[in-house]
Structures are given as structure tokens and as C-alpha cells.
Amino acid sequence: MAMSTSAQATTADELSNRSPELETFNYHYKVYYHALSSQRQNMHMAYVDVPPNPNSQPKNRTVVLMHGKLFCADTWTDTIKTLSDDGYRVIAPDQIGFCKSSKPERYQYSFQQLASNTHELLQALGISRSTIIGHSMGGMLAARYALMYPEATEQLALINPLGLEDWKALGVPYKGIDSYFEDELGFSATALKDYQRRVHYNGEWRPEFDRWIEMQEKLFSGPHRTMMAYHAALTYDMIYNEPVVHEFEYLKVPTTLFIGLTDKTAIGHGASPAVMATLANYAELGKSAARRIPEATLIEFETLGHSPHLQAPQQFYPALLKALKP
Predict the structure, then answer these.
(1) Which one in 1, 39, 59, 150 has a CA-CA gap of 20 to 30 Å to 81?
(2) CATH number for the domain harbouring residue 227
(3) pTM of this prediction?
(4) How far lies 235's CA from each of 98, 145, 202, 250, in Å?
(5) Of 247, 45, 263, 278, which Cα lies nearest the Cα of 159?
(6) What domain range is 110 assigned to?
(7) pLDDT tens digits for 157-167?
(8) How would residue 17 be classed by pLDDT, with cut points 50, 70 and 90?
(9) Quick one: which H or E segment has residue 301?
(10) What CA–CA distances, in Å, run from 254 to 103, 146, 186, 295, 318?
């Protein structure tokens, strides 16, 4: 299995005394680390690299998976297996500031920066062209990656991406990093579970979803809670300030939108009830995005929410594999 040459001697045990990197949360697939220098700091980017299943017919294609704000590379476990079994090589990074990757002391977060970091990782792995799949915040990042590196993007797939609407233009007031930080200091696993049940899964909850709550709880527990809250605040500010909706016309790659219609996810902190009532209309947002993206296909899931690949894998994966065929 290919490794980033810049980090080939680094192990998870050697990283255990650094900033919180989910040391006690084991991923299903082996984790590698890519060393990079960004914004005058040395850091490392964790990633999973899974080859095609030996029993499959290799497609000689690579798929890159971009996680959401409340998720990590390991959230893609079933997706990785499905794609590997179908003959794809699969790369799933943890973005800087998230999960098993570095939490730098200071960082100017932007989707351009995260896309650049990911592109550097792929170049280090010798991958010049790939299919990019993004979920939630990762959908915003995937779209930005395709806009920045169209020649390196074979196909684009967006799973209930954020950024399909411009919250500030629609009346959501600016909250600010300090206010986000105070909110994140109050992290509660119970509150997160209630939020995801209500907003992501249309009131449904299954035991397998508990793993992703545990993952976030491990990040925010212990002496590093303040650090994690600050990084979470910075990335909320990035999401609010950098919607991709205004640039959909410039996407130059075939794009598939997978939209769970019961999703209620939106950045709406401080918005009036009247404004909130206009947000997160994914039935319309998906259609609007599909009209504006030059080579777009829209696939809707009427009864599913923010994470259709987690909520109904038996329904989602056949649609995904079909969409990825050339």
C-alpha cells in the first residue's frame, strides 16, 4: 500500500503525547501520516489509503473522500469497503484541525487552504487525477477542490453538501469566532446526539450512530477541550463566510448531487424564526444547484436526511456506484 514518503516512519504511538488526535479511538483501516508545512508550521495530515479488493476487477481509478465537520475519515468505513470491493483505490484524509490530524496552535482556515493541503497529499502519493466525494462540510471542500484543480478532478459527488445557500445573504447574522467558541466550550455528547437525531436523521436514531458521538466526545474530553473548541469555532466561521453556491456555474467536471430531502442542516445561529423558516429547504436547494452546475445529475432520497450513506446504505451505495461509472 502506498505511503506518503514524508511520514513513513511515524506511528500513532509516537503521536500520542501531542495535541488531541483521537489516540484512543481506533479506525477500521490503517492510518498513515503525511508531513506538511503550512502557514509557517510543521504538521501532519492523517489519512486512510485502501487499495482495490484483490477479488475485485481493478478500475485503475482513485476516489478521495472528504468528511464533514462532525465526522472523520473513519465515518467513511462502509463507503471505503463498498468502493474497494468495486475495484477502486480509496483515500480518506482527516483534514488539518480535525480528528487524527494536527491541531495547529494558530491557523487561518479556508476551504482553499484545506483543498491545497489535500492536493499536496495526493501529489505525494503519486495521484494526479481522482474522483472527489464530499459530505456536509466536506461537500463544500470537494466543490472548492474541483474549482481549484479541475484537471485533477475526474468526477465530483456531493452528499448533502453545506454551502448550497448563502446564510449571511439570507439574513443569518454574523456570530463571530468568540461567540462560536463559547458555544463549543459547552460541548455535550447528549446535546450532539439530540441535534443529529433531529436535524440529520429526521428523528431516527440507531445504535450504530453512537460511534460518531463517541468520536466527538473523545476529541472534546480532557485537558484539550479549550483547544478543540477554538478550532471548531474557526471552522464554523469558515463555513459561514465561504459558501460555494455563487460559483457552481464554474464547475467544469461531471457532478452528482445526492440529496436527502429531510435534512434540516443550516448555519442559523441568531437568526429570527422567520429567517430560519426559509433555510435548509433541501428539496429546492438540490434542484437549484443541479440547474446551475453545467454537468450535474441530481439523485434525491425522499425519506433520508443529512447522511444518506449512513442512514440507508442499502439504498445509497447502488446509486453511488452507478453514478461513478464513466
Answers:
(1) 150
(2) 3.40.50.1820
(3) 0.93
(4) 10, 17, 25, 24
(5) 263
(6) 5-324
(7) 999 999 999 99
(8) very low
(9) strand 296-301
(10) 34, 10, 41, 5, 18
